[in-house]
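Notes to self, Polyketide synthase:
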Amino acid sequence: MWGLVRSAQTERPGRVVLLDLDEPGSLADLAGKVLAGGEPQTAVRAGTMFVPRLTTVPREPTESGTAHR
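result:
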């Protein structure tokens, strides 16, 4: 199902939102807030919104003293 939604998001940017709720009954309370955020994908856990982000992670040296490539 997620793949189908992502395809629809690609074809119609800004018109399809993927929303993952921990409590289905909370949709009415959160719909406006989620849509105002403008994110294509949002997860809501205990009333807090989470969106996917890529970040850099510092490399840690291995036992040989060099970082993995």
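- Strands lie at 18-21, 41-45, 48-50.
- The chain has a mean pLDDT of 82.
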